[in-house]
């Protein structure tokens, strides 16, 4: 039975104490609360003309965005400038997926939430990497996922139970985020305590044995402090055979000094996952093998056990309206124990030594006469990180120019260890557990006579220092010029017990820049051009391929031109952009096995985004991206190829209509054109269109909602894995979900 770690237990007890100590309901704070009702029901929202029943105390100012629980149209994001900034003032494409969209779609997983973001594709568990693996505009964003502004580098499957929104900034952005961010960054924005009491419970059940419960409790402690606790538990089956996940988590947060010059926030995320890893279906004749969607290549007792503990402390002091100082510290620990199996080579016979197909597995042999080698992917992974960030925001004038300057200092320390194992059955080649038929493999526990041996232990550490300054200069009423520079020092080392290199260390220095010009002729129009850079050290993920240890960082640059318009009286936001991202010195393998920085990878394209109201009752959220990706230069045979997992077309659209005060319907498609599983372009995965739908009844205290995922039961492939020729993980089959949300206040 799983036991809570001492750190997790201590954190849970510390945050639970104030809640239990609050034995009586506090009086309604005598403050003017500038927030909308927090109910998720359209029927329960007050009208704009409804008078406030609260009295006003000028000494207290409640900050933060309104909790527009049903609104698809976000107005600000902190991902483009580290502080909440109007989207129209960010000279880059940005997409904010609000909580309202996720609730309408009954979304619970991080990967499913990102299907609302055009230009994103999903990768699956790959090599030593487990958890959410994301491609953004054709480039890997595995280490570019953030939680409340800090790098969330752990290899785990993220949940949305404590998220207010998911903010995506496209293009190289090392100015604010340091290393990485070739295609962009993804920031998870957590829910925060408010001075409005709430207690919400959600229960969900669905086909394929899907069950989930979430709780959201928010209670004032004093007139200027509050405690909020979000929690979830779930047991999820799948349209894939065998697959089963059991997860739970809790996220307590307490905030002091709400509305006062000094605000202090303490928060934690504690999550436990026990999931079944899915390494997908092997290729045959250049495409995923023609097997039933539910076919699973592995053992029934495969498992991935993940534990996450993240502690954060934030303080913000407002000297006046024009000078704000912030400091944040975050400590995270991630652990993963994986006993997994993947479908490796496709064999022409039933023995582990039988000849294997290669290069897309082209053959004229009948699939019923082919076999699949099963290999172990067992490993124990531990990640630790400590981050500290200090920034000062100052607004001032120099003659006719208005400046908004943000300057800051980022410090980081990270460690990583990965103990890998080989698992071999008697009489089979090394790290081969079994050989099963390609068609209708049996589902059995891992054989008891499998011998598991510890192999390489990789231990890494890194220290980073980054200092930056960015200035947004307002010139008159219609023009803004954005410019910034950042200096980074990134020092990392790795030690391998068996693999080569046995030891490697590197220290990288890099200067990143960002610039943009914004023209805003009216309050509903914003046009911009921008340029940005970023860098990718070879030890960026604290793992290393032999031959890369002495290479300098890869360089990335982006050019973008776009427009952000608020149409239909400001109710509908429409964004458009043309972009060009290029990695000018990509690492590339030479014929002799060495690596050089002579590669060149470019992705250019067009992006369209929609968010908001077409009418008062009709909402829409979605986008389209065209990506023209090409490996311009490489010595490993991939020159002229299309980068892996980079489809030319991606489209997502979700729309809802409230046709009475209580009844709402919605739905929409997700489209993705064909793409390749690996840079060699041997294996192509076909395009697809998936349709989802929903219907809901809203009352003052409760909602009843029905969702259908993959309405037409489309057989499609979702996540791609480049290894072993290129594997593909099937997407959901048709799934029905019923959700009941109840609000006690």
UniProtKB/TrEMBL annotation:
Cell compartment(s), UniProt? Cell outer membrane
Which processes are annotated in GO (biological process)?
Answer: siderophore transport
Q: Which UniProt keywords apply?
A: Cell outer membrane, Ion transport, Membrane, Receptor, Signal, TonB box, Transmembrane, Transmembrane beta strand, Transport
Could you say which residues form the signal peptide? 1-21
What is a single molecular function from GO for this protein?
signaling receptor activity
Enumerate the spans annotated as TonB-dependent receptor plug domain. Answer: 87-185
Q: How does it sit in the membrane?
A: Multi-pass membrane protein
- Principal subcellular localization: membrane
Outline the extent of the TonB-dependent receptor-like beta-barrel domain: 272-711
What InterPro entries does its record include?
Beta-barrel_TonB, Beta-barrel_TonB_sf, Plug_dom, Plug_dom_sf, TonB-dep_rcpt-like, TonB_sidphr_rcpt
Q: Which GO terms describe its cellular component?
A: cell outer membrane
Ranges annotated as biased composition (Low complexity): 34-55
Entry-linked PANTHER family: BLR3904 PROTEIN, FERRICHROME IRON RECEPTOR-RELATED
* Protein family according to the UniProt entry: Belongs to the TonB-dependent receptor family.
Q: What is this protein called?
A: TonB-dependent siderophore receptor
